[in-house]
Design brief:
Neutral endopeptidase, domain 2, two-stranded antiparallel ribbon, 28 helices, globular, disordered N terminus, Membrane metallo-endopeptidase-like 1, Peptidase_M13_dom_2, hydrolase, zinc, Peptidase_M13
Length: 708
């Protein structure tokens, strides 16, 4: 029998230990090398990404223009984005295309859907998407029997039906009410109020198809507004094989109706307050047909409707015009329904993107659930939360340092700031979200009729958007608007009713944010957007709500007088901007709160960035590993603060057609170019960063507007 002595056993143990130590050392060495290689790859990948993104930013710029002469043109003069549909294209809105790519990926995540218990809903979504991919979406098959059947069921199409159309049974108001069920804002322009009970809110109808029509832009048949709308109508009417004579007569009839309808609006220039004054002056009663709208669009549900009806004077006058142009009105509304179903693609190569956008916008609660589970990390949440805290510190400092606030008003303002709640990613209401996702099972994808499928989709989308209002008796009074549940959108909100700010997860993509960017760029983009929303809590509307979200006057007369004077500065400043493409000026009064938020957000973001860098530098003095990262972007010969302002401006790079200017003339947001010019020309630090001489366009001699 072979035996091992004690000494031998000890020697063997020693050799084993030595062997293990060497092996472990090699393993540790290999792990260390692998870790080092991984870190180097990450560093190299980050450096390459930054070089690539810096080159992209540079490609947008027009170096033939001095930044002090026209900062928008300098920052965005060479930004180009092919127009894919009837909507305008802009750099910030391009995030939608990034999200569309992610949507396509998420639709393949069957295991994730199973884990989240949404497999059935994902299956319906996949069926719709596949149906869309194989359908003819451009040009729209306008004469499809499904579309014609729907039109006939809601009011008729006299251009197509001829003598079979019964004028005596036609109601322009009822047809408009039916169309709202499919998202068509015809002669009833409704949306949903953002507070309980989530009932409808009505605004002035916008007339036209591809180009909004106004009295002065359709005065002659050679205008762009006239030609684009004429071409759209001709395209639809030709699908029904009407004679050229008949088509011309129908088109002319619609234009005649538009001109008379526009003449009503011209009396009060679209100003709702003026319209109410005319209502009172002429003692016009509430328009009698509104109850029909609730019967048709809200399943007979009645709110306290009279509070929300749009200007009775307008509808009383519109009723007279519609009675005079019955056939034209019916034809207009019928084609408006077709327009709602139309992809309006500029090229067939955008077909897939169109289908993805339909999925993303209509099955948004489902796709969002998958997106948040797969893409939104705690690490991201933590960084954005830190940025929000930095912005809130600077807002608080601005409130503390505003010498024009008296003691009591300042106390209320600081109390309001202290009570702001921040939601990063989205608002969470799992029970309501799951209920909304379950609704997808009700969407019918018709195998042999994509037209009927599209009709079903549009109706489904509207009913989903009205869900809270339709079920207001069953939901808590503190329920949030449905938009706040969808993190997968490139947006941020300030919500007056609960004094909260929402930074949605879908916003966290270039050109708004990327983890690898220098902090100077992050603060100039996402930091500014956060500051913009925080400032809304203290604009002319936000300032009427207190820290608990209650509408209350917490201002002293003295402080309020200064506040109104400072706000008026923005009204006057922006009202001076002429839009040469349409020969109209920016409506400073309608856009003042967005302009105030832009200016405040930009100031707060820069102050927060400076404070952040000071903190990093202070830490760096005590710990060399905590020094600030390189604050410049490779390939751009710009200082960190110049990069800050460039990032802000490039959010708003956009391609505008003439119709976009008309479309946004009524918007509460200023047209992109002028919101950039207005914000930087009222910011003294911008002038310092770019060395703009006093008297230059971006550093004018007059006193700069400043609220906060």
């Amino acid at each position: 029998m072979f035996s091992i002595s004690t000494r031998s056993r000890l020697s063997l143990s020693f050799l084993i230990c030595v062997f293990l130590s060497v092996s472990e050392a090699r393993s540790v060495s290999n792990d260390s090398q692998d870790q080092s290689d991984r870190e180097k790859k990450i560093t190299d990948d980050t450096a390459e990404y930054l070089r690539s993104y810096g080159a992209k930013m540079k490609s947008y710029m027009n170096f033939s223009v001095e930044p002090c002469d026209d900062f928008y043109e300098y920052a965005c003069g060479n930004w180009k984005q092919p127009r894919k549909s009837k909507q305008k294209e802009s750099n910030l809105l391009s995030i939608d295309y990034s999200l569309a790519v992610i949507t396509e990926q998420l639709m393949t995540r069957t295991q994730l859907a199973e884990a989240l218990n949404v497999s059935d809903e994902l299956l319906v979504t996949q069926r719709f998407y596949n149906a869309c991919l194989t359908a003819v979406v451009s040009p729209l098959p306008a004469a499809d029997p499904a579309y014609l059947s729907l039109i006939r069921s809601v009011g008729g199409f006299p251009a197509v039906d001829g003598a079979a159309w019964n004028a005596s049974k036609f109601s322009w108001f009822n047809m408009s009410a039916h169309l709202t069920n499919y998202g068509v804002k015809g002669l009833i322009n409704d949306d949903i109020l953002a507070k309980y009970p989530f009932d409808p809110n009505f605004k002035m109808p916008d007339l036209g198809y591809d180009h909004p029509v106004h009295t002065d832009n359709i005065a002659n048949s050679s205008s762009r507004a006239y030609k684009l709308n004429e071409d759209r109508m001709r395209g639809y009417l030709q699908a029904f094989n009407l004679t050229e004579e008949k088509i011309s007569a129908v088109v002319a009839g619609v234009f005649d109706f538009w001109r008379e309808a526009l003449s009503i609006e011209d009396k009060f220039e679209g100003n709702e307050d003026m319209c109410i004054m005319l209502t009172d002056m002429h003692e016009v009663p509430v328009f009698s047909q509104w109850r029909s709208y609730f019967e048709i669009a809200w399943n007979g549900l009645h709110f306290n409707e009279e509070e929300y009806y749009y200007c009775p004077y307008y509808y009383a006058e519109l009723d007279k015009v519609c009675a005079k142009h019955q056939e034209a009105v019916a034809n207009y509304l019928a084609m408006l329904l077709l327009y709602r179903m139309d992809s309006s693609l500029k090229d067939e190569k955008y077909h897939k993107e169109h289908c993805l956008m339909l999925v993303q916008s209509t099955m948004d609660h489902l796709i969002n659930k998958l997106y948040m589970a797969e893409y939104f990390s705690e690490e991201t949440h933590s960084e954005i939360s830190g940025l929000v805290k930095e912005l809130r510190k600077t807002l608080r400092q601005e409130l503390e340092n505003a010498e024009w606030l008296d003691t009591e008003t300042r106390r209320e303002a600081l109390l309001k700031e202290a009570n702001i709640t921040a939601q990063i990613g989205s608002y969470k209401d799992e029970q309501l979200t799951d209920t909304l996702i379950r609704q997808i099972r009700n969407l019918s994808v018709v195998k042999d009729s994509f037209a009927q499928t599209m009709i079903n989709l549009r109706k489904f989308g509207v009913s989903l958007g009205r869900y809270n209002g339709l079920h207001y008796k069953e939901i808590p009074a503190d329920s949030k608007p449905l938009e706040l549940l969808v993190g997968m959108q490139p947006n941020a909100f300030y919500f007056n009713m609960d004094n909260s700010i929402y930074i949605m997860a879908g916003l966290l993509h270039p050109p708004a944010y990327h983890r690898s960017w220098p902090d100077s760029l992050k603060f100039g983009t996402l930091g500014y957007l956060v500051g913009h929303e925080l400032t809304h809590g203290f604009d002319t509307v936000g300032s009427t709500y207190d820290g608990a979200g209650e509408e209350r006057n917490w201002w002293s007369k003295k402080s309020d007088a200064v506040f109104q004077e400072r706000a008026q500065c923005y009204v006057d400043h922006f009202s001076n901007y002429l839009i040469p493409e349409i020969n109209h000026k920016i409506k400073g009064n309608e856009t003042k709160d967005e302009n105030i938020a832009d200016a405040g957000g930009l100031r707060e973001a820069l102050a927060a960035y400076r404070s952040h860098m000071k903190q990093l530098q202070k830490k760096g003095e005590n710990n060399e590993t905590l020094t600030p990262q390189n604050e410049q972007m490779p390939g751009l010969d710009l200082s960190p603060e110049q990069l800050f302002f460039l990032g802000f401006a490039q959010l708003w790079c956009a391609n505008y057609e003439q119709e976009d200017y008309w479309e946004e003339l009524k918007n509460e947001h200023t047209i992109e170019k002028y919101r950039v010019l207005g914000a930087v020309s009222n910011n003294e630090v911008f002038a310092e960063a770019y060395n703009c001489p006093l008297g230059s366009a971006m550093h004018p001699k007059f006193e700069k507007c400043r609220l906060w």
